[in-house]
Amino acid sequence: MTILMITLAFIGGAVLSIQAAINGQLANKVGVFRSAFLTFALGALVTGLLIFFFAPKQAVTLVDVPKWQLLGALCGVPYIVIMVLAVQRIGAAVATVAVIFGQLAMSMIIDNFGWLGNEAIPFSPTRLGAVACLGIALYFIYSGNKTAAAPAKMALKRR
What we know:
With 159 residues, the chain is mostly helical. Helix content is 78%, strand content 0%.
């Protein structure tokens, strides 16, 4: 089951990168907020259909849960808007690695302190090393973008 969940998470990450690249192109044509709106509108429609046809009955409804738990839904808005803006300027790879770096850093803080009702999983040298490695990867991917962009700019100037 663990391998399946890791595989599904990997696929989810791949789909997010595809979404970011597509939304970046869409935003160039229709604007950042319209692109984000389309993402949420279609997402709401598809999710609504999935709930209607496939979701089992739950003992607790959205009205019954602690209200702070509903705030998680708002976290998607800045993510989509930021990614649409970032992909246009720094590319899908740098934007995605930066998002993963932010996710990993914050999730480790949440784990360490057991925030938001999660079980506490303390920092360890290997977990901190993983964050450091991802930070280094982000640096090299970003540096690679600048290095690759320089010859392309020179070629455009020659035309």
